[in-house]
Amino acid sequence: MKLNYFFLTAVFFSHSALAQPVTVSDGWVRATVQGQRATGAFMRLTAKESAKLVAGSSSAAGIVELHEMKMDNDVMKMTPLTNGLDLPIGKTVELKPGGNHIMLMDLKAPLAVNSNVSVTLTFQDAKGKKFSQELNLPVKALTSAGEHKR
Fold this sequence. Notes:
CATH superfamily: PCu(A)C copper chaperone
Number of domains: 1
Radius of gyration: 17 Å
Shape: globular
Oligomer: single chain
C-alpha cells in the first residue's frame, strides 16, 4: 500500500511541474556586499499560453519589482514595468543584466554567493486569471559563470 501512495504522490508532483503555464530556466540572483540594499534576479521565461509577468515577492526583500533598462538620450535608465511584462506563447523572454530584470530591493541581509533566495513570481493569463510560481534561485557573482549563456 505504501508503494502505491508514493507512486501516486510522485505522479501528482511530476504532473504539477509539467502543468506549469510558464517554464522558468537558468534563474539566478546577483550576490551583494555588506550594506548593499538592492540586487537583480535573472532568468528565462517561456509561456505555454499567452501570459504576463505582473508581480513578484521574496522573504529576502521588502520590495520586488519588474524593471527594464533602456537607452534614453545616450543614458542608460532603469524604470519599473508597472503594467507587467508580456510573455508571448512559446517565445522565451530573457530577464538579464542590462535588460529587463527583477529588482529585489530593501534587502534584509547580504546575499552570499552559493546561497539560495526564494522568489515568488505572479503571472496573469490572457483571461485575467493570476497564478504564482515559487522559485528557489541560486546566488551568483556577476562573472562569466553567473551570466546567462546560450
